[in-house]
Amino acid sequence: MKRIESINDFVIKFANINGSGSASANELFAKAVMRMGVPVSPRNIFPSNIQGMPTWYEARVCEKGYHGRRGGVDMMVAMNPQTWDADVAEIEPGGYLFYDSTRPIPESKFRKDVEVIGVPLTEISNAAYSDPRQRQLFKNIIYVGALSVLLDVDATVFEKLFAEQFKGKERLLESNLRAINLGRDYVKQHLDAPIGIRVRKSDKVGDQIFTDGNSALALGCIYGGATVAAWYPITPSSSVPEAFQKYCDKFRVDPETGQHYYAIVQAEDELASIGMAIGAGWNGARSFTATSGAGISLMTEFIGLAYFAEIPVTLINVQRGGPSTGMPTRTQQSDLTSCAYASHGDTKHVMLFPQDPHECFEHAAAALDLADRLQTPIFVMSDLDIGMNQRLCKPFVWDDARDYDRGKVMTAEELEAGKDFGRYKDVDGDGIPWRTLPGTHPTKGAYFTRGTSKDAYARYSELGPDYIYNMERLLKKFKTAADLVPQPVLRKAQKPTRFGVIYFGSTSPAMREALDVLEAQGLHLDALRLQAFPFPESVDRFIAEHDKVFVVEQNRDAQMRSLLVNELEIDPARLVKVLHYDGTPITARFITHSISKNLKAAPIGAPMTSLHKEAA
Amino acid sequence: MTYIAKPRMHHPELTTNKVGYTRRDYEGPVSTLCAGCGHDSISAAIIQACWELDIEPHRVAKLSGIGCSSKTPTYFLGASHGFNTVHGRMPSVLTGANLANRDLLYLGVSGDGDSASIGLGQFANAMRRGVRMAYIVENNGVYGLTKGQFSATADRGSKSKKGAINNDSPVDLVGLALQLGATYVARSFSGDKAQLVPLIKGAIMHGGAAFIDVISPCVTFNNHGGSTKSYDYVRQHNEAVSRIDFIPRRGEITTEYAPGEVVEVEQHDGTSLRLRKLHSDYDPTDRYAALSYMNAHQARGEVVTGLLYLDPLAVDLHVALNTSDTPLNKFGVKQLCPGSQALAKINAGLR
Fold it and tell me: How far is A248 from chain B (nearest CA, A)?
């Protein structure tokens, strides 16, 4: 057997049972590797269940900093008897199987072509701890300790991590360190370490931060000045408002009075959530709601109202898989159409596509500005892959000179001075009208907000010309939006090429890697990463400059491609679909294979088996 | 429907209130509802109540859902911002608006279809949360704008104009409001202005969720024999439990009452409600007694009206959430943004 030998480039997967406390141990492992200066990108693979079901944590250790899923597993930490067979089968030939050897396992259950490493975790833990809960929790920490020796991770990183994490809680610090050392000592005394895959100190992490998209969105809402949040629990978005609450506790409590500079309401449903967010936006507070696809479906009538009555509101959509209840704990980018054109009649909405937690922060704050500026719903389209996984990314940045853009709000002084106020009148040529907030002036500036058609002065009207004036102005406003939203990011190929690729959101890390691999194989593509809808002119230009443009996305119906065809009137034949939608995050292998196959080149550097599975 | 502004000509000697407005300053454009519609009487009562309360019109936000009743906010308080939202969803929009600016007074206008049928969930949850507002349901038991279908408040056995019999049990919004925690619950009749105006005044100045169910006959689709929401039916079955006077903090009303007949209930903000009890066994500060009294009389076919329940120490959602006295919509980057130094610390904690 030729065992896998690799430094700072491997995939380790932890098979656990949910509710067993493994999550924090696995995170500890990832952080320890990062403290060695080596990037890690972990992904939680979990069921829609609270306790007792299988859950996996797949961590890709990659010095080059590719954060996409690689595919394949070099080492399996098999802690769940229920999934043993499938977990063992998933290991690459020459890989490693780490397991709890306390109880004997029949030889037929192992594979000959992987290296088997048994550590009697339960035995060690039970000998050291008497409390059943502690036995369970520290068993997890013990395996982290054992792995750290096998993979050559310094003991000192744990001391530092615990010292930071348990500052002021010395007992917890000591007991955790003890558990780590129990694992470390066993391996040192009984096994050959390190093994063929290992971690070596590097400097590739730099000042990057390690966080999840949902917390970053919440923090962006804090920095962006949101004060009213209304929401209804739904996976995978619930941790956005929960994190917002946590940050509000920290940053939005008046130190003298204890009063809150925020209001969070867990509403009775998504209809009420968006209704409250709209009411607050109408009344001049920055507001948001966070939800997922099913919630958007419920909100659509209100979204149409906010579009037509022109009310600022931010919607965070952490997308999950499938129609109906679908795959609530899996990831997809499949709400593009439902959000872009949400609601009846002619509607179009602004969407932002953050690629990682850093951009979740940026886009959340930008969305609140854009909502006020454009007086319309703004969708921040994250997904489960970004939202519920920790990712290494650039640190958050805020310029203290930055003020909020409150858009066109007419003041009492301006009204008093006799400035003409037509709520739905285009006076500046950008399609954006002026608004007033309730209570501004005793006699001027009041108007009636309604979902019915109206004239430029907000008076009820069913006259055709009034309706058309309004709808054309909304279209002009949408054009204005294209210049205000975050602009596409171009990555030019090393050589001039007729081929292009368009991608966005959580596809980014896999795409970065795929482009490197394709380039190494002599396949050059210019790549355009979309950050928003509507599309600025540069998108049209990019497509025009290439004969063939791949559109890579994570849904079945090529929704982004449809938007491109529809909005830019592109010949569909020029846009090639690359679609990944099995609920797992897209991989570089999948993209490279799809593109290279299309370009009639040989498939590149990937075993066919895992490709078929991912493309299913 | 067209939009008809009323002429702005005022009689030079129209009386002004303490904030310098005449009653006409509280009006809106001409109503486009059917002549004789109960809803127009309610609009007139709202105008009267706001004028008498010396409220500056622009300090009121009036919100509604969809339907005949929800159209009415156009026809009063023309200098107030209004919001005609979506069907059955006024309570959530009002909740959000209220959270954004606690300094305004909120008037929620809805109908029986809007609140008891499509919007029952939002009605219930707004009451539960104690959103400070005067929530007025203009209840005619029928869908007017779509021409005469039953709504969820239509009594079982009542007959539609086309002769159909309603087989479903009615939703009793007053009963629900009492159960769900509303702190000011009243029922009135659009044809009884003397009762309605003080009830609206009390509701507007109330410190929590105030609900008034106003039976408001639909002259076009629900004012015939066999209807339990017609002018005749309500007049014959109206059983008023109380008459109230709303007394603002500053003014004292010195009407004389026979001893034992009057209860004065002081509210947390210093205003008070003087309640003339018409039934000696009725206690309007006991939520459960109110519920059982109402149910007993309802079983006898009586429509109990008046102030049915009042919690004078009511609190609202802002108290529950401990939101700042300064309205949230007044804050800017200085108060809301923690700044780059705090962010550097957060970054450090994520490495």
Answer: 10
Q: How far apart, in whole angstroms, are the C-alpha atoms of residue A337 and residue B217?
A: 45
Of residues A508, A506, A547, the one with CA closest to residue A528:
A508
Instruction: Classify burial at A483, counting beta carbons within 10 Å of its beta carbon; exposed 0-12, middle 13-18, buried 19 or more.
Output: exposed
User: B5 in a domain, yes or no?
Assistant: no
Alpha helices in A1-120 (DSSP H): 22-35, 84-90
- Condensed to tens digits (0 to 9), the pLDDT of residues A551-570 reads 999 999 999 999 999 999 99
* pLDDT tens figures, A15-28: 999 888 899 999 99
Q: Nearest by CB to B347, which of A273, A280, A395?
A: A395
In terms of Cα–Cα distance, which of B251, B280, B278, B284 is closest to B265? Answer: B284
A-B contacts at Cβ under 8 angstroms:
231
Name the residue type at position A613: K
Question: What does the alpha-carbon distance between residue A183 and residue A158 come to, in Å, rounded to a whole number?
Answer: 13
- What is the number of structural domains in chain B? 1
What is the pLDDT, as a whole number, of residue B261?
Answer: 62
What confidence tens digit (pLDDT) does each residue in A343-363 have?
999 999 999 999 999 999 999
Q: How far apart are CA B76 and CA B69, in angstroms?
A: 12
- What digits encode the pLDDT tens for the residues B186-208? 999 999 999 999 999 999 999 99
Contacting A residues, span 267-286, partner chain B, CB-CB under 8 Å: 267-269, 271-285
Residue A562 CA to residue A579 CA, distance in Å, equals 13
**Structure tokens belonging to residue A495:** 């050589």
Residue B203 Cα, gap to closest chain A Cα (Å): 20
CB neighbourhood size of A136 (10 A): 17
The CATH number fitting domain A211-393, selected from 3.40.50.970, 3.30.1330.30, 3.30.1540.10, 3.40.50.10490: 3.40.50.970
B82 lies in some domain: yes
Residues A22 and A14: beta-carbon distance below 8 Å: yes
Domain parsing of chain A, residue ranges: 6-198, 211-393, 412-484, 489-615
CA pair distance B200, B264, nearest whole angstrom = 17
What is the CATH number for B267?
3.40.50.970
For B:83-122, CB contacts with A below 8 A are 83-86, 89, 91-101, 103-104, 121-122
**Candidates A230, A258, A275; nearest CB to B89:** A275
CA–CA dist B172, B179 (Å, integer): 11
Could you tell me the CATH superfamily of domain A6-198?
Pyruvate-ferredoxin oxidoreductase, PFOR, domain III (3.40.920.10)
**Contact between B190 and B196 (Cβ < 8 Å):** yes
- Distance, CA of B328 to CA of A259 (rounded, Å): 11
Q: What is the CATH number of domain A489-615?
A: 3.40.50.920
B-contacting residues in A 370-409 (Cβ below 8 Å) = 395-400, 402-404
> From CA B337, how far away is CA B340, in angstroms rounded?
9
Q: Which has more confidence, A299 or A616?
A: A299
Residues of A in Cβ contact (< 8 Å) with B89: 271-272, 275, 302
Neighbours of B220 (CB within 10 A): 18
Q: Is residue B16 part of a domain?
A: no
ipTM above 0.85, yes or no: yes
Contact status of A66 with chain B (Cβ, < 8 Å): no
- Structural domain that includes position B132: 23-335
Does some domain include residue B50? yes
pLDDT-based confidence at A50, cuts 50/70/90? confident
DSSP A487: P
